[in-house]
């Protein structure tokens, strides 16, 4: 972190804390009604009207310092103190589009292994002789599992449309 960035950050935090304290010390507009009856300025540190002027002016200058340091921090962090600026410094700056957009790519650039040309001996009907020495006989495809829902069969003939009853006159 550079010295300029650290200095601006410290001034920013101090001015923010000063604004918070100064706003909390100020009296609201409704507090002036008490001074009309003689009770408002008795406990005042700066007198009857001096506190409003001093606190409001100090709050104004603390706000000016806060906004100037905010602009300075934005400039320093965007421009960079030690690094040269580039126009292509965004979130997508290091992204490279895939060469073939018609085929989805595996994440991380890992290739998917090709299926084996010979079947596995542990899979029945794979064509690899089992340990018994004889090749398994070709079997018919298995019936679908009952837990998997099947599409309903289409009716052979469509149902005749029902005519609505006509009201009697």
TrEMBL record:
Role according to the record: Involved in protein export. Participates in an early event of protein translocation.
Zinc-finger is among the record's keywords: no
Compositionally biased intervals (Low complexity): 121-169
Entry annotated with the keyword Transferase: no
Family: Belongs to the SecG family.
Name of protein: Protein-export membrane protein SecG
Major site of localization recorded for this protein: membrane
Annotated GO CC locations: plasma membrane
UniProt xrefs under PANTHER family: PROTEIN-EXPORT MEMBRANE PROTEIN SECG (PTHR34182:SF1)
Compartments reported by the entry: Cell membrane
GO biological process, one term: intracellular protein transmembrane transport
Matches recorded under InterPro entries: SecG (IPR004692)
Gene Ontology terms for molecular function: protein-transporting ATPase activity
UniProt xrefs under Pfam families: SecG
UniProt KW keywords: Cell membrane, Membrane, Protein transport, Translocation, Transmembrane, Transmembrane helix, Transport
Lineage: Bacteria, Pseudomonadati, Pseudomonadota, Betaproteobacteria, Burkholderiales
Annotated segments matching region Disordered: 87-169
Membrane topology according to the record: Multi-pass membrane protein
């Amino acid at each position: 972190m550079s010295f300029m960035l650290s200095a601006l950050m410290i001034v920013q935090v101090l001015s923010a804390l000063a604004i918070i304290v100064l706003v909390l010390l100020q009296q609201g507009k409704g507090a002036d009604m008490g001074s009309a009856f003689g009770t408002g300025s008795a406990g005042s540190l700066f007198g009857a009207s001096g506190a409003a002027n001093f606190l409001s002016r100090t709050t104004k200058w603390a706000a000016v310092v806060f906004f100037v340091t905010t602009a300075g921090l934005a400039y320093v962090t965007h421009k960079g103190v030690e690094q040269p600026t580039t126009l292509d410094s965004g979130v997508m700056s290091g992204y490279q589009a895939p060469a073939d957009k018609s085929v989805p790519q595996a994440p991380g650039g890992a290739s998917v292994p090709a299926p084996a040309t010979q079947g596995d001996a542990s899979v029945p009907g794979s064509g690899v002789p089992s340990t018994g020495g004889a090749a398994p006989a070709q079997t018919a495809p298995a019936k679908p599992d009952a837990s998997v829902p099947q599409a309903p069969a289409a009716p052979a003939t469509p149902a005749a449309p029902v005519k609505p009853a006509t009201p009697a006159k």
